[in-house]
Specification:
676 residues; alpha+beta; 8-stranded mixed β-sheet; 24 helices; 18 strands; 39% helix
């Protein structure tokens, strides 16, 4: 008993507080152990969630369903969050369907009226369990029993997906609907023989079933080729410039589908854009993500305009299905899906508006970084990613057996870039780097895209100026290419709702020179004067202590502008960084800090005297032998030089106001995740 007590009080204050926070998240907010532990590591978000529950008088004794609903609102509602939460707590809304509808309504409406909210969320509409049972029985009775058995055995969720389109069940509690499906379907199909192998549906028959009395085939062609004829396909991003009255052939995926009695509306998506298509007659119902070939007439429709859609509509003349989509698509991910579930289904998430837009901005950034470097006469090179030297300390190295020799996945290509300066001049690379970061914060990855550059014959102030130039230039270039996508993801940074998103001057957070200059010593003073404590000691900072992630973000939030934090102490930085003349305890180093993210760039001038570099090896306890090629750059005609590395995912996090760098990757890799 005494031993347990001693161990408990031996915990650092931060660890103790994190444990207490995790316990509150479990008990009060209803999170499971994993999610509560993960969220507790993010103090600002954890405190916000706990305060959200407290503000609505929800405590540990509250019903679990209420906690789940409130957490969903906190996670998904981007505005009017307290209004929706109050509606849930007062039982004005209660079912998951109503909660999802309320969140969508709140996110789309700046000012909510009670009447509009009630209508949009089915407030007052009661569907009893007995009514649900009767409606489910009626709808199941309309289905072909053989097809129903096949669908239920393959994916029960596909049956639920069909029932979600039933108007009478719009405001039903789908936990009850699911229970009825699970109970009624087995009894209904008990006497239906199992399908023989030859009876199973063929994946190679994408066309919808033949028309019935309930289902027409308006405009449906025999094949996609019959729809296309001799025309080439028009990309959807070209529709905005296509004159009204023109006939076009398009291909894409059904991003959103709304079937009505005598017409249907489909938002079609391809790799370049979105457009609404109107089917003027009754067509077979097909699920979201069905791929379609469509011939249609372009019409002007101002109401169709959104951040991603032009003020145009396509009036369908003929169409065909290219590839069918399983109805289960509706149940793979939902508004309630956890972060882990979303990452498990990342290949599906990438089809969404936001994820696809992020990937397109990412591609534009890679393009504009290259354009910037090319304009500065820098040559792109591709150093190896399997190495036998370290660059940023041994604790984050991924080790591997390289044909019996010890090797590592690279932490940085910097050392190799430096070798190029004396032969091909200023260089850059855009390659993955690897850090064995045993953390799951929203700023860290185990594999990330590293943009690095090295410049020869420069001084420290030249380096700082080049970093400023790069960030400002890349921002402007990217906005000109895809400002509309940035506006879709980070619209609050526009100076006005009707501002041109492709004009760099339209953005409030556009970086401009000069950036704030903040020497490390002044940063320590700034933190202490503004009540930003060292989380490890819970005391004011002392010179020489590292300003870690959370206090760094708190500091830059108060500054509110891009900041160059400079002149770090020697003992805090890597062995290769040059010293300040006359103040050798400081380095000619820089971190670029951006509001909302913290550090996005790290750079420095490099030692170019071989004797000074030898002392750096000795100080870090490094064997200089494996670095012979690096030392030779100083031995044979060294010159003053410097460079930097920028994390692309952190730049995206800042530019698009993302919650986590994981959203900025195609398939993120971090501690605990190496799939899909």
């Amino acid at each position: 008993k005494v031993t347990v007590s001693v161990l408990y009080w031996a915990l650092p204050p931060m660890a103790e507080r994190t444990d207490q926070t995790a316990a509150t998240l479990r008990d009060v907010c209803g999170l499971d152990t994993k999610n509560s532990t993960d969220l507790a590591s993010k103090p600002e978000r954890a405190e916000d969630l706990i305060a959200f529950f407290s503000n609505h008088n929800v405590d540990a004794a509250a019903d679990r369903a209420l906690k789940v609903g409130l957490y969903t609102i906190w996670t998904k509602a981007k505005q009017n969050r307290d209004y929706v939460a109050a509606a849930l707590v007062s039982k004005r809304i209660s079912t998951s369907t109503q909660i999802e509808a309320a969140i969508r309504f709140a996110n789309a409406t700046s000012e909510i009226s009670d009447a509009a909210f009630d209508e949009a969320c089915g407030v007052g509409v009661m569907v009893t369990s007995a009514q649900i049972a009767a409606i489910v029985a009626q709808e199941l009775g309309k289905m072909d029993r053989k097809a129903l058995k096949l669908a239920f055995n393959k994916s029960p969720g596909s049956v639920l997906g069909q029932l979600k389109r039933v108007e009478a069940l719009k405001w039903a509690d789908f936990t009850v609907v699911k229970s009825e499906v699970d109970q009624q379907v087995p009894a209904l199909v008990a006497d239906v023989p199992d399908a023989a192998a030859d009876d199973k549906p063929k994946k190679a028959t994408p066309q919808p079933k033949a028309a019935t009395k309930e289902e027409a085939t308006w405009g449906l062609a025999e094949s996609p080729a019959a729809v296309q004829g001799s025309d080439s396909a028009t990309r959807l991003d070209a529709i905005s410039a296509t004159p009204a009255g023109s006939t076009v052939f398009v291909r894409g995926w059904a991003h959103r589908v709304r079937h009505q009695a005598k017409m249907s509306f489909v938002v079609l998506r391809d790799s370049k854009g979105f457009v609404q298509c109107v089917f003027g007659g009754r067509i077979p119902h097909f699920p979201r993500e069905t791929s379609l070939a469509i011939r249609a007439k372009v019409t002007d429709e101002p109401k169709a305009k959104s951040a991603l859609q032009p003020p145009k509509e396509l009036k369908v003349e003929s169409w065909a299905i290219i590839g069918t989509s399983d109805p289960d698509i509706e149940n793979i991910i939902t508004h309630d899906s956890s972060v882990d579930k979303l990452l498990d289904q990342r290949h599906i998430v990438l089809r969404g508006d936001n994820a696809a837009s992020i990937m397109q901005v990412r591609a534009a950034l890679l393009q504009t970084f290259r354009q910037h470097f090319w304009a500065k006469d820098c040559l792109e090179v591709t150093p190896p990613t399997i190495v036998q030297t370290q660059c940023e300390g041994g604790s984050t190295l991924f080790k591997l057996d390289y044909y019996g020799e010890r090797a590592f996945m690279t932490q940085s290509s910097q050392l190799y870039l430096e070798t190029c300066l004396s032969s091909i001049g200023d260089v850059f690379c855009i390659l993955p780097s690897f850090r064995a970061e045993k953390t799951k914060t929203n700023r860290h990855l185990s594999e990330y895209t590293h943009i690095e550059a090295e410049y020869g014959n420069i001084q420290y102030e030249d380096l700082l100026g080049r970093i400023e130039d790069m960030i400002c230039d890349v921002f402007d270039r990217t906005i000109r290419i895809c400002g509309h996508l940035v506006a879709h993801l980070n619209k609050d940074e526009l100076i006005a709702p009707d501002a041109d998103p492709r004009d760099p001057a339209s953005w409030k957070f556009r970086p401009t020179k000069p950036f704030v200059r903040l020497p490390y010593a002044d940063a320590i003073k700034f933190c202490n004067e503004n009540g930003i404590l060292n989380p490890e000691t819970e005391k004011p900072y002392v010179f020489g202590e590292d300003i870690t992630d959370a206090p760094e973000r708190a500091m830059i939030a108060k500054i509110g502008k891009p900041t160059l934090m400079t002149h770090f102490p020697t003992e805090m930085k890597s062995f290769y960084m040059s010293r300040v003349k006359g103040a050798e305890s400081l380095t000619e180093s820089v971190d670029v800090l951006m509001p909302g993210v913290g550090e996005i760039v790290g750079g420095s001038m490099r030692m170019w005297d071989p004797k000074e570099l030898a002392l750096g090896y000795e100080r870090e306890g490094l064997d200089p032998a494996p670095y012979y090629w690096y030392t030779d750059q100083r031995k044979y005609g060294g010159v003053p030089h410097g460079g930097f590395g920028l994390g692309l995912e952190r730049f995206l996090k800042w530019m698009l106001n993302l919650h986590s760098v994981k959203e900025a990757c195609l398939f993120p890799r971090y501690m605990g995740r190496c799939q899909p």
